Amino acid sequence: MHNLSVLILNGSLKTGNQHLLYQSAIEKELSSKGISYESIILNSTDLRSCIGCFKCWDTTPGICSGVKGDSGNDIARKVIHSDLIVFLTPLTFGGFSSELKKMIERFLPLLQAGVVLVKGETHHKKRYEKYPSILAIATYENIDEEEVNIFKHLMHRFSLNFYPPKYIAEVLSLSENQVVIEEKIHQFLIELEVIQ
Fold this sequence. Notes:
The chain is of the alpha/beta class.
């Protein structure tokens, strides 16, 4: 069995790094188990939005060539070579932060043009045999159950199109203390079979 690799995509907004506590808790847990990881704080990365040109499907398959000179291709390469990707994001109208959404849109080259029928639904075709598992953690200051439900549904739909072996989508309070956060992270990583 190969050594596991984890990529943490911190989607905190530029107004503040709200998720450093969560990022640190994940890094601490992985380090204690000798699991390699890389953390990327997206708001301090040169990352531009997908322009919807679809060159990654028909001109340079698997590589974004419509957006030039940013870090999108490099991060997408790291995503597909990881065993687990972690999304950290403020809960934004039931969705991802603008920082994380930019990166998720840049996952498009990791799939192929065309669709396949899966349980009566159309989904993008796989480009690769293996895709990473996903841990998506959204945080809130004031709970809104409708937003929580939207986020979990959004992650469920995303998982159907991105083929992760396992995924967890959770919404947690920014007021959680460090001990509680570390316990939850530990449990999530067990459920995802990253640690035992």
